[in-house]
Structures are given as structure tokens and as C-alpha cells.
Design goal:
Chain lengths: 356, 255
């Protein structure tokens, strides 16, 4: 309708450019910031969801009564993800150094590691560690009782919680090996040579020169992996969990089935996961901006250092391109300040905008 | 030419280096005495930089022997036992790169302290004192707390020189130290290098096209041609009594 009116209006009016209704709409729209418009879209989506929620007539009282119990599973979800990501980071670092090594053993082992853990489904790995590993240990013990300690099989029998941490760590570590490898390779070769020329050993070179620079590139995507891992902890529920360490999804499932409110339980679980992810995505985006900004060491940036980071970038813009030599001008383009802090576009996947 | 009473700090014997089928160095013999400044020049690709990079084993020599202040290492396959020797040798050679290669995550002071603290194990306080002293020598005391990206190219290169000096090396090697600089910044770097030679009597090997610097500061010049030292002599001999047409042609092109 509106479009129609606008068009007829436009044909009828004289060639002199009097703004049609459509143009006026466009003009008015241009005055509203992009952010506000996006917020309106979100509000609309939530209105629709709210309507669905209402018309599906969920048992809201049940949800209100049990959301506390389900939410307490967040603790275990978080503990599992935190322990898993720590393990993954350690493995990824070792794996990446292995992939970049000219030592055949290190290269071969890291190659096998990434190939296997990226080549099989996470859920299969969970079952392998939960079911197949104790069985294998048992069989080995039966076959070589003289060589193995009697506690050999119990040593390889883990709770679903332990399996969850280890398998998430192994699986994510394999993927993150590639992130770490790329990060290390992003440090210019001249840096390693300068360290070599000073007489540094491999270990000193990595610890003092290469890794601190690589972490600038590695930290943001590692945050993304952590967010992804928090959701994959839900898979552990499939192994069954003791009541004391039940993570979020397991709680929702058991409770929902017991009370015959499976849909309510699922919706609640989804909302909680989403809220958790939104919070961490917010911090992730901040971290990413901070790390990408100047280029002072990535850890513990105080407001003062941040200010300095800004100045450094400005300096590059004005002062000419001699930073090119240090291999950093590439990372700190002049636009950095103009974009208002979104420092890196190409190198790193940026987190989705925070919904709220 | 060797100075009377001089003692060779660097001795290179029969050095060969190939990259695959490409033979870049075809038998180099050169000695550099204590306090001597040797300028190495020649067309790009003639092997000048490779010589410096072989001396501190950034490139593994295919064949030949490198000796730096008494520490002798055979080229060829890199074996485990050789690794420690190479680290020791590198600590005795200061290296200044064309692209500076300063550590961007450290301040100028941090860059200069890094070698003494990490490699030599000198404690922070003393390393800092030494570093400040060396920064003063290159005229950058006031830039100690700046990060490299805030420094001009000339300043960066002077910090790089200070970083190498802080290790108190027996020889300083400069690999085209001014080639990446804007013309107006070349002078300050050359001035620092000249001061090193004249005031500190630093033993230096300099790969450069700056013939003015060579004429003024070098004790000896070596012209590289197709992986060999074609012509060698004092600046006076090289400039005024040029023996080879290749040298002549090159000098004509750069002067």
C-alpha cells in the first residue's frame, strides 16, 4: 500500500524533486541508528517467541518451581567446561609445537592426535573412554596379570564427569591445535631469527618471543572454543551422571521425564544455556577488542595501558610505516581507531553481537 | 690486510652454502681482526647476507668452518652436540637485521635487556643499568619506555643495535642496516655505527651499499661476486685502484 501510494505520488508530482513518501521514510529511517533498528528486530522476535510461549500453554508454575534445581547444574557445566578448556589449551600448545616440529616423533604423535580426535565424533569418543577403555584395561589385566598391577583396570575406570572433562579437553585440544599452530606461524620469521641471533635456546625463544606474540592471535578464538564447549557439556548427560554432579541438561531431562513435563524442562534448559552463552559472548567480544587494540602485551591491560595502546595505533597512522619491519603494522591498520575498537577483521572470527 | 698485532676474531674457512641446487656461497675465506671494520658489498644475490647468516648459523653452512673468538664449529649436518656451541657462538655475535626485528611486545628497554637477562642470566637490576648505558650510546635514553611501533625506523634500528651491543659481543654484524630506512633516517644509524667503530673500536662486519660510510669507516672492503670474494682491499685500493671490471661496474652503479 505504502509503496503503491509512494509510486503514484512520484509519477504524478512534477519533475521537481519533492520528496515522495518513500523517500521521506528512507530519510527518517536514516536518522535512526543501526543499533536501534537491530534492537527493534530483537524485540519483535521476542514478541513472537513470547506469543508462542503463551499459546503453547506451558506449565509455568512447574518451570518456576524447578528452574532453580536445573540452574544449579550450571555449576557443573561450568566446572567441566573450565577444566576441559584448560586441558585443551595445554594439549593444543603441545600439539601445535609438535605440528611445527621437525622431530619425527613429535610430528607423528601430534599428527595422530589431531587426526583421530578430529576424525571421530565427540559422542563416539565419550563412549570409547567411558565404556571401551575400562573394558580394554580389564582384558589387558586378564591377559598379563603378572606384569600389571591389580588396580590397573580401576585406574582406567572413570566417572562420567571425569570422562567428560578429559574427552572434551582432548577433542577441543585437537581442533585448537590448528588455532595455536596458525597463531604461532603468524609471528613473523624475523622475530624467531632475532631471538636466535641473541643466542636463545628453543625454549627461551618460544617463551619470551614467539608465544607472547602468538597469544594475541590465539586468545580470541580460544574464547569462542570455550563458549562452544560449554554447550557440548550437555553431551555428557548421555553417559548418565551421579546425582551430586549432574550438569544442566541431565537435570532437565531427569526432572522433566519424572514429572511428565519434558517440553518445559527442555525449554528451560535451552534458555539457561542461551543466557550463559550470551554472558560469555559479551565478555568474549570485550576481550577480543582489547586484545586486538594496541598491542601491548595481552594480559592484564589496565586503563592506562589501554590508553597507551590507543596512542600507539594513532602513532602508526601518522608516523609512517616503519612498523612494517616489526611485522606488526599489518596487524594494526590505521582504520583501527576509526572503527572504534574493532581492531581485527580478517584474522579472527568476531563473536556475534550481544543480543541485548 | 690484517692490522699489525691484530688477532682474528672471526675466521671463515672454505665456506660453502647451497639452497637446494642453488649454490650461493662457493668457497669463502675471510678473517676479521680485533677492532677491524670490514664492509662487504656487491650485487644482490651475490651471497653477502648469506655469509653473515652462516657465521652465526642462522643458515647452516653446507661445508666449511666458522670460528668466532676461538670457538670453532664445522658446517655440515647439525648434530645435537653442536647446538650448545651454536648458542654460545651466537651470543658472541651481535646481529643487526635489515628489518630491525625488534620484539614488538617489549619496550625499547625490554628489547635491550632481553638478551642479557634471558640468555646470560644477568639479574634485572644490573641488566637494566647496562641496557640504559647502551641506549645512551645510541642516543635513545629518552625512548627507553616506548614500544617499537612508536619509534621511527631510524630509532628502531638504533634500538636493535643497542640490543645487540648489550650482549657485549666480540663482533657486530650488520645486514644491510639502512636499506629499509627512509633516506632522511639513514644518517642517524650510520652515525651510531661510525661511533661504534671509532670510539669503541668494535669489530664489525657490515653488508651495505653505503659507499660513503665504507670510504670513511672501513679498514677493509670485500666485493662479493657470484658467491666468491672477487676483490678485497682497503677502501683506497678498492675505490681508486679497482682491479676487476665487475667491481668497477658495480661501483659506478651505486656511487
Amino acid at each position: 500500500m505504502t509503496t503503491n501510494d509512494a509510486r503514484t505520488g512520484a509519477t504524478r508530482s512534477s519533475p521537481a524533486p519533492s520528496p515522495s513518501r518513500r523517500d521521506r521514510l528512507a530519510l527518517a529511517s536514516a536518522g535512526v541508528s543501526f543499533r536501534v533498528k537491530v534492537t527493534l528486530v530483537w524485540v519483535a522476535i521476542f514478541a513472537v517467541l513470547g506469543f508462542l510461549f503463551w499459546s503453547a500453554s506451558f506449565d509455568n508454575i512447574w518451570i518456576r518451581e524447578h528452574i532453580g534445581f536445573i540452574a544449579r547444574g550450571l555449576t557443573w557445566t561450568l566446572i567441566m567446561a573450565a577444566a576441559g578448556i584448560v586441558l585443551a589449551i595445554v594439549l593444543a600448545l603441545i600439539g601445535a609445537l609438535g605440528r611445527l616440529s621437525r622431530n619425527p616423533v613429535a610430528y607423528g604423535l601430534s599428527g595422530f592426535y589431531t587426526s583421530f580426535f578430529r576424525g571421530t565424533p565427540l559422542i563416539v569418543q565419550l563412549f570409547l573412554f567411558y565404556l571401551a577403555m575400562p573394558q580394554t584395561a580389564q582384558n589387558l589385566l586378564d591377559k598379563f596379570p603378572n606384569f600389571l598391577p591389580t588396580s590397573f583396570d580401576s585406574f582406567f575406570t572413570w566417572s562420567s564427569f571425569q570422562v567428560g572433562i578429559v574427552v572434551l579437553g582432548l577433542n577441543y585440544g585437537a581442533y585448537m591445535t590448528e588455532i595455536f599452530r596458525a597463531g604461532i606461524q603468524s609471528v613473523s620469521h624475523g622475530q624467531a631469527e632475532a631471538a636466535d641471533a641473541l643466542g636463545m635456546t628453543y625454549r627461551q625463544k618460544m617463551r619470551r618471543v614467539v608465544l607472547p606474540q602468538a597469544f594475541r592471535v590465539i586468545i580470541p578464538p580460544t574464547g569462542n572454543e570455550f563458549i562452544a564447549m560449554m554447550k557440548d557439556t550437555a553431551l555428557i548427560s548421555i553417559l548418565g551422571q551421579g546425582i551430586e554432579k549432574m550438569e544442566l541438561f541431565r537435570r532437565a531431562q531427569l526432572l522433566g521425564n519424572a514429572d511428565v513435563r519434558p517440553t518445559e524442562a527442555l525449554v528451560t534448559a535451552a534458555a539457561l544455556y542461551w543466557a550463559l552463552t550470551a554472558v560469555f559472548t559479551f565478555f568474549q567480544a570485550r576481550l577480543e577488542r582489547r586484545v586486538g587494540k594496541g598491542y601491548v602485551r595481552t594480559v592484564a591491560l589496565g586503563p592506562k595501558a589501554r590508553e597507551r595502546g590507543k596512542m600507539i595505533v594513532t602513532g602508526t597512522g601518522g608516523g609512517g610505516a616503519h612498523g612494517a619491519a616489526s611485522g606488526y603494522a599489518v596487524d594494526a591498520p590505521e582504520e583501527v581507531l576509526d572503527v572504534g575498537g574493532h581492531a581485527h577483521g580478517a584474522a579472527l572470527p568476531s563473536a556475534p553481537e550481544d543480543p541485548s | 690486510m690484517t692490522l699489525a698485532g691484530g688477532e682474528a676474531v672471526v675466521r671463515v674457512e672454505n665456506l660453502h652454502k647451497s639452497f637446494g641446487a642453488l649454490e650461493v656461497l662457493r668457497g669463502i675465506d675471510i678473517e676479521v681482526d680485533q677492532g677491524e671494520v670490514v664492509v662487504i658489498f656487491g650485487r644482490s644475490g651475490s651471497g653477502k647476507s648469506t655469509l653473515l647468516r652462516c657465521i652465526n648459523f642462522l643458515e647452516e653452512p653446507t661445508e666449511g668452518t666458522i670460528e668466532v673468538s676461538g670457538l670453532r664449529i664445522e658446517g655440515g649436518h647439525r648434530i645435537r652436540s653442536k647446538r650448545d656451541l651454536i648458542h654460545q657462538l651466537r651470543a658472541r655475535c651481535g646481529m643487526v637485521f635489515q628489518q630491525f626485528n625488534l620484539f614488538p611486545h617489549m619496550t625499547a628497554l625490554g628489547n635491550v635487556m632481553e638478551g642479557p637477562v634471558t640468555v646470560k642470566g644477568i639479574e634485572q637490576e644490573r641488566a637494566k643499568a647496562v641496557a640504559m648505558e647502551v641506549l645512551a650510546k645510541v642516543g635513545l635514553s629518552d625512548k627507553a619506555d616506548e614500544y617499537p611501533i612508536r619509534l621511527s625506523g631510524g630509532q628502531q634500528q638504533r634500538v636493535a643495535i643497542a640490543r645487540a651491543l648489550a650482549m657485549e659481543p666480540d663482533v657486530m654484524m650488520f645486514d644491510e642496516p639502512t636499506s629499509a630506512l627512509d633516506p632522511e633516517l639513514i644518517g642517524e644509524v650510520l652515525a651510531v655505527m661510525k661511533a661504534l667503530a671509532v670510539e669503541m673500536h668494535m669489530t664489525m662486519m657490515v653488508v651495505t651499499h653505503e659507499m660513503g660510510f665504507a670510504r670513511e669507516v672501513a679498514n677493509r672492503m670485500a666485493f662479493f661476486h657470484e658467491g666468491r670474494i672477487l676483490e678485497e682491499g682497503t677502501p683506497d685500493q678498492v675505490f681508486n685502484e679497482t682491479r676487476f671490471p665487475e667491481t668497477q661496474r658495480f661501483l659506478k652503479a651505486v656511487l
